[in-house]
């Protein structure tokens, strides 16, 4: 594996996707397709400086993404996309001084790390080794022509009827001896049905010069490329099933795997329960014995142990500590923390706030830029008026407070420990410790009013 580099080809137009988004940035579950490929290369022990991604079509977007998500990985440009052979050649200055070059199509998100490692391990053996698979429907894949001791590839569009019947196809993963590739790469022509330079022609050229070529077969399930929206959906489904399988074999209970989606970066502890129709994305984690109720969508949510997300909760970039409870129908977002045993209930939105231990926001409330101490009860319909049209302001509520229903906190607002507010109050001044803040009009009754003003029969 010494002195080996990996080139990921991601410059193609992806015409068949019929989308303005570059193909390799199309997402499988919640991540761009290229991320799976790059992480696979990383997991095979290849350091960033020995890895390059070739960009071209939509290249600015792809480059920006790689630079941000995978710092250190080299981005190379293929300004005109004249085919995969041209692609590899246009990166020659970068790979020419290595001993071995592994080339991967950028549209192989399902490829397993073991397969890549095997290809890397074989890199020094033959002049070229490729990965193939037996395709149920070989479609437009390049067909593998096996001779006694050699392998070559004929592209579908150039293949004759007999060759098109071959089911063993090229997966788009190649390991080359650099010296050998250098000796044939300029001989690749575009004299073919697509008028493209094919990297696959390198094998035939090598065979002609007495060099050695070989192939090994991997399952189709991990080697299918993504060229159409249909294939993207298929690949996403396979990926989803694999992720769910991994969790279930670790003791996570997934009530209905056919309706649950979980991203590749999520962590879930054994004995967590994921109810039907749940989605969990990003860097979320779910602790032991926690239940994520139906219809909930979690993104970068950090869920502790014994948490109950009752149902239909949307939780983003927030933390629910052990024993917290949320839902049904709540929206918890932007760095909110529910401390141990805290509760956010029905039709409640909480943004950038900390709800202290054992505190409750049970119904119809909005808490924005607020900190609540422990054991606070927020009455139904209470909200923080945190935005004055220009800036956001904080609300601080101390420990053991009892907030009457429909209290408006005009922020910046402060309520001391052990204080209370009267229902319907608009709080514009500090409520001192252990006091009751009343900020509402007094009730006045007008006797006999109805007799004069209502048509009563
Ligand atoms: C290619 C193979 C085919 C194989 C299939 C597997 C060739 C000629 N054919 O076909 O044998 O069965 O992959 O999926 O290689 N790319 C560039 N620059 C270009 C053209 C393509 O970077 O000028 C990149 C694409 O972004 C993509 C990869 O190369 O990641 C493969 O290109 P694609 O057009 O998908 O090749 P296929 O026609 O699928
Ligand atoms: Ca392809």
What would your notes on this structure say?
- The protein has 457 residues and is an alpha/beta fold.
- The longest helix is centred in the middle third of the chain and has 21 residues, at 229-249.
- The radius of gyration is 31 Å and the shape is elongated.
- It binds uridine-diphosphate-N-acetylglucosamine and calcium ion (CA).
- Uridine-diphosphate-N-acetylglucosamine (UD1) binds at residues 9-12, 54, 56, 78, 81-84, 86-87, 105-107, 141-142, 153, 155, 169-172, 198-200, 225, 227.
- How much helical structure, as a percent, in the residues? 10-25%
- Could you tell me the number of beta strands? 39
Question: Major sheet: size, sense and barrel closure?
Answer: 14 strands, parallel
Q: N- to C-terminal separation?
A: 96 Å
Structural category: alpha/beta
- Shape assignment: elongated
Cα-based radius of gyration, to the nearest Å: 31 Å
Number of H/I helices: 11
- Tell me the fraction of residues in β-strands, as a range: 25-35%
Mean pLDDT value: 97
**Ligand identities:** uridine-diphosphate-N-acetylglucosamine, calcium ion
Residue stretches low in confidence (pLDDT < 50, at least 5 long) are: none
């Amino acid at each position: 594996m010494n002195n080996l580099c990996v080139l990921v080809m991601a410059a193609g137009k992806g015409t068949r996707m019929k989308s303005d988004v570059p193909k390799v940035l199309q997402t499988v579950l919640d991540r761009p397709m290229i991320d799976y490929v790059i992480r696979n290369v990383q997991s095979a022990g290849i350091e960033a400086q020995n890895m390059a991604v070739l960009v071209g079509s939509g290249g600015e977007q792809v480059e920006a993404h790689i630079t941000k998500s995978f710092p250190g990985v080299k981005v190379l440009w293929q300004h005109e996309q004249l085919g995969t052979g041209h692609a590899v050649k246009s990166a020659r200055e970068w790979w020419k001084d290595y001993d071995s070059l592994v080339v991967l199509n950028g549209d192989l998100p399902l490829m397993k790390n073991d397969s890549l490692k095997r290809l890397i391990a074989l890199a020094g053996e033959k002049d070229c080794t490729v990965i193939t698979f037996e395709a149920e429907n070989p479609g437009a894949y390049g067909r593998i022509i096996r001779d006694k001791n050699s392998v070559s590839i004929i592209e579908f569009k150039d293949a004759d009827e007999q060759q098109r019947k071959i089911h063993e196809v090229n997966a788009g993963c190649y390991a080359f001896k650099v010296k050998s590739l250098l000796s044939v790469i300029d001989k690749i022509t575009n004299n073919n049905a697509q008028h493209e330079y094919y990297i696959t022609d390198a094998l035939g050229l090598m065979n002609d010069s007495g060099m050695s070529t070989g192939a090994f077969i991997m399952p189709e399930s991990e080697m299918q490329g993504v060229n159409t929206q249909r294939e993207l959906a298929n690949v996403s489904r396979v990926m989803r099933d694999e992720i769910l399988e991994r969790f279930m074999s670790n003791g996570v209970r997934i009530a209905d795997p056919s309706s649950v989606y979980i991203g590749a970066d999520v962590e879930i502890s054994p004995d967590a329960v994921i109810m039907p129709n749940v989605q969990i994305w990003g860097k979320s984690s779910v602790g032991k014995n926690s239940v994520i109720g139906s219809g909930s969508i979690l993104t970068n949510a950090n869920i502790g142990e014994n948490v109950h997300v009752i149902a239909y909760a949307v939780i983003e970039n927030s933390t629910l500590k052990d024993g917290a409870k949320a839902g049904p129908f709540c929206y918890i977002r932007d760095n909110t923390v529910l401390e141990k045993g805290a509760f956010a209930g029905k039709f409640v939105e909480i943004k950038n706030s900390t709800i202290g231990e054992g505190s409750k926001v049970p119904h119809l409330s909005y808490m924005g830029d607020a900190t609540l101490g422990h054991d606070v009860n927020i009455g139904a319909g209470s909200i923080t008026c945190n935005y004055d049209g220009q800036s956001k302001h904080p609300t601080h509520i101390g420990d053991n407070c009892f907030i009457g229903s429909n209290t408006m906190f005009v922020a910046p607002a402060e309520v001391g420990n052990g204080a209370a507010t009267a229902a319907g109050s608009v709080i514009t001044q500090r409520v001192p410790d252990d006091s009751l803040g009343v900020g509402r009009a007094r009730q006045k009754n007008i006797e006999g009013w109805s007799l004069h003003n209502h048509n009563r029969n």
